[in-house]
Amino acid sequence: ILAKLEAQLASASPQAQTRHALEVGRSWASATHPPSSQTPQAKERARGAYQKALELAKKHQLDDLSVDALHMLAFVDTAPADQLRWGREALAVVQASAQPAARKWEASIRNNIGYALHELGRYDDALAEFRRAVVVREAGSNAQALRVAYWMVAWTLRALQRVDEALEIQLRLEREGDAAGATDLYVFEELEALYRLKNDEARARHYADRKKAVAR
Predict the structure, then answer these.
(1) Does residue 216 surpass a pLDDT of 90?
(2) Residue 208 Cα distances to 21, 156, 196, 197, angstroms
(3) pTM of the model as a whole
(4) Which region holds residue 88: left if phi is over 0, alpha if psi is between -120 and 50, else beta?
(5) 76 CB contacts (<8 Å, ≥6 apart)?
(6) Up-side HSE of residue 202: CA atoms within 13 Å toward CB?
(7) What is the C-alpha to C-alpha distance for residues 149 and 155, in angstroms, rounded to an integer?
(8) pLDDT digits (tens, 9 = 90+) for 81-92
(9) Comparing 96-100, 106-110, 179-183, 189-193, which segment has the lowest mean pLDDT?
(10) Which candidate, 89, 168, 165, places its Cα nearest to that of 127?
(11) In this structure, are residues 62 and 49 in contact, taking their beta carbons and an 8 Å threshold?
C-alpha cells in the first residue's frame, strides 16, 4: 500500500510525506515486530525511513512528527543506552515546542526514558522520570494511562527494595482496576512478587491465581 503511494508523494503536503516515511519505517521495525524479523537489513531500512521522516519534520516544523520519528528510532537502536539517547532527544523537542500535538508526547517520552534508565540499573533516576510522567498524566483525562504511569513508579520502587511503598500503590491499582472492570495481570504479577518479598506465601499465591485467571 505504501509503495503504491510513492508516485503521489512529490505533490503531497510535507505532513503527508513525513507520515508516509514514518509508516514505511514502522513496516520494518516497531514495538509489534517479533525479534526474529529484526535483521540488520530490516533495521537499516527502518532507520533510513525514520531519519527521512525526522529530516522532513524538522524542516517543516512538524514537532509532533519529529518526536514520533525519534521515539521510533529507539525500536531500531534497542540497547538501553541508545534508547535513552533517543528519548532525551525527543524530550528536548517536546520541551522546546509550543505545539500542543508535540507537548502531548511528554508523558510517553518520560516513560520511555524511565524504562531505559531502569534497564541500565539507574533506578533512582528512573523513578524520578516515572514520577514526572505521573504528574503529566494526572493533568489529563486518561485513567488507564495514569494507572500505567503509577505502575511504573511502583515497579521501580520494588527494584529499590522499597516494598511497602510499592505495595501501597499496587493494591490501589488493583482496587481501581477492579472498579473499572479493567483487571491487570501485570498488577497481579507485581503483587505476587511483593508478597513473596514479604514472605507472605498465601497472599502471593492468591495473586498468582488472579494472574492466571486473567491470562486465560
Answers:
(1) no
(2) 44, 20, 11, 14
(3) 0.93
(4) alpha
(5) 29, 43, 46, 47, 50
(6) 0
(7) 10
(8) 999 999 999 999
(9) 179-183
(10) 165
(11) no
